């Protein structure tokens, strides 16, 4: 198996509204994948399709080479509100997880609870947002899935809680070797932990690929005013702005940029994401 998730022409509609349109992806296994995009772009829909909570309207999706089925022991899912049961204690969550999951790893669960400082006797309703997120992650990870799906797991956390959560996520990745797909608006956080990126805009895939390749292939060009068609072959203009005398272009390039008239600057991952979100369109 070489793919964690495959989508081919995947479309999901709710009545007249299209949540995901003609999505084609091949996400390799063994990666930590950042799923980004504006609100309403289809991120949650894609994750729910991937874990079998939704069925496609048209097209095909496979998770770990299989049609997604809700409750699969091979796929773990933590929804956007990091669901835990307010009236249950931490220990009761672990006992419930052990009862529902034949592959439950009690040692892993106990170690994580101790590492993140959760009191087994504490009710989930009394935990902080960061603690609830850690509990939800522990329950999802202790079933030992091959693919872990996380929908905005750090959205409501403060910076320290986010850092602790992401550190715990990386430790789990190293320990278990699972594939992870995590949606988030916080691109700076994703850049620290993700090695693959998928960007959805307007219910469509705009760009997808290894983070290192995306960083190496995108540039900001600043120089005398030119039209986008004049940048040369092998260069796709993602975003552009102009004054009377100067052009600033964000380009994706497969060819060297050796024109001395251009000042060429490297971009961070957030710069690339924002360019695709604000530009007229992109390419995958």
TrEMBL record:
Any Pfam family: ABC_tran
InterPro entries xrefs: AAA+_ATPase, ABC_transporter-like_ATP-bd, ABC_Transporter_VariousFunc, P-loop_NTPase
Gene3D superfamilies xref list: P-loop containing nucleotide triphosphate hydrolases (3.40.50.300)
PROSITE patterns membership: ABC_TRANSPORTER_2
Domain ABC transporter positions: 5-227
Domain of life of the organism encoding this protein: Bacteria
CDD domains xref list: ABC_DR_subfamily_A (cd03230)
Keywords: ATP-binding, Nucleotide-binding, Transport
Recorded GO MF terms: ATP binding; ATP hydrolysis activity
PANTHER family xrefs: ABC TRANSPORTER ATP-BINDING PROTEIN ALBC-RELATED
Name this polypeptide is given: ABC transporter ATP-binding protein
Lineage: Bacteria, Bacillati, Actinomycetota, Actinomycetes, Micromonosporales
């Amino acid at each position: 198996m070489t793919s964690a998730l495959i989508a081919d022409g995947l479309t999901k509609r709710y009545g007249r509204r299209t949540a995901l349109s003609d999505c084609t992806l091949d996400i390799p296994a063994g990666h930590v994948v950042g799923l980004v995009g504006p609100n309403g772009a289809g991120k949650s829909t894609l994750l729910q399709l991937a874990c079998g909570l939704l069925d496609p309207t048209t097209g095909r999706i496979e998770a770990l080479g299989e049609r997604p089925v809700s409750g699969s022991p091979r796929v773990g899912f933590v929804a956007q509100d990091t669901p835990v049961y307010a009236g249950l204690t931490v220990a009761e969550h672990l006992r419930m997880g052990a009862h529902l999951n034949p592959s439950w790893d009690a040692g892993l669960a106990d170690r994580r609870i101790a590492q993140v400082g959760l009191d087994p006797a504490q009710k989930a309703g009394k935990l902080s947002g960061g603690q609830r997120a850690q509990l939800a992650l522990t329950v999802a990870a202790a079933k030992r899935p091959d693919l872990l799906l996380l929908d905005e797991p750090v959205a409501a956390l403060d910076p320290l809680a986010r850092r602790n959560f992401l550190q715990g996520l990386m430790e789990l990745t190293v320990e278990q070797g699972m594939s992870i797909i995590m949606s988030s608006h916080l691109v700076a956080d994703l850049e620290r932990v993700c090695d693959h990126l998928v960007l959805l805009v307007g219910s469509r895939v705009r760009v997808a690929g290894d983070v290192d390749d995306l960083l190496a292939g995108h540039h900001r060009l600043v120089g005398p005013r030119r039209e986008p068609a004049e940048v040369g072959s092998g260069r796709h203009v993602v975003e552009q702005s102009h004054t009377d005398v100067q052009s600033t272009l964000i380009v994706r390039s497969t060819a060297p940029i050796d024109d001395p008239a251009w000042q060429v600057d490297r971009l961070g991952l957030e710069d690339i994401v924002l360019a695709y979100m604000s530009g007229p369109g992109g390419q995958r």
